[in-house]
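Please, structure for the following, as C-alpha cells.
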Amino acid sequence: MINKLNAKIVKTNAPIVVGLDPMLKYIPEHILKKAYSEYGETLKGAAEAVFEFNKRIIDATYDLIPAVKPQIAMYEQFGVEGVIAYKKTVDYAHEKDLVVIADVKRGDIGSTSEAYAVGHLGKVQVGSKTFAGFDADFATVNPYLGTDGIKPFVDVCKAEKKGIFILVKTSNPSSGEFQDRIIDGKPLYEHVANKVREWGEDAMGDAYSYVGAVVGATYPEMGAALRKVMPKTLILVPGYGAQGGTGKDLKAFFNPDGLGAIVNSSRGIIAAYKKEEYAKFGDEHFEEASRQAVIDMREDIKSTLN
C-alpha cells in the first residue's frame, strides 16, 4: 500500500490528503434538512448527513488527490450510527480508488494493540472465515507505550501490505510539553523518530517503509531535522491551513525529489465554502469550493517545492 500511495502522489502531482472531519457545523443546511426529514433529528439523521457530505466531497476531489483521512472521533460522537457512516465513508473512498488513512491514534500493548491493528487494518477470524473490519489502508498510532504497542501493528502491516503513521511531533501548540523534553541531549521527538526508522527498516516498500511518521507543518525547523533522521519514512504532515501551516513551511518535510511527504488539510478543504475566497460557490455547491481549495493547495505546494 505504501507503493500505491507513493505512485498516486506521483500520478496526481498532489501530495495531499483530504481530512474528512465532518462536524455538523461544516455541513450545509440543505443536507442536514434532507437527512432530518428522512430520519429525524436523531443520531442516524446526523450520521446520514455526514456520509452524504463526505460522498459529495469525495466525488468532487477523487481525481485530484491520492488519499483521504477520516478522523474517527468525528464519527464516534454519533455512536453506532456514526461508526456506520465512518465505515461507509471508507468503503466509498475505496470505490473511487483512494487510499484511506484512518486517523484513529490507537496505541496499547499486547493483545489489545493487536486487536486494534486487526480491526482497522487486518482481518479477524470468525469460525472458518476471515473478515476485514474497517479495512483502512493506513492507521495513525500513538507510540507512548513503546515497541509493545507498535509491533502488533507492524506485524499486521507486513501481512496485509498496509501501513501506519506514528505520532512523532504533532502540530498542536502544547505538543512541546512532552515531545520537546530533552533526554540524553536530544528532544523526545527525535528519540521517537529514531525508533520509527528502526521499526520501519523491517517493513520496507520499494522506496519508503510501511511505517510512516506524523510531523506537524507548524514546526518546519523540526521537520527539517526529522527528515534527515527518517530518510525512508513517509511523513504525514497535519497543520496546513486552519492550524497555521503554510506552503513555505512544507519544503523541509520533502526529500530533494519532491517526494517523501503527504500534507493533510481538513477544514481548509471540507469547509472551504465558508471562506470568503470561495463564497461564490455557495452552500448548494460546497463541493465545488472544496475542489477549488484542493487545486489551490496543490499549486501552493508545487510552487514551494519548485
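The chain has a mean pLDDT of 95. Residues 87 and 212 are 23 Å apart (CA to CA).
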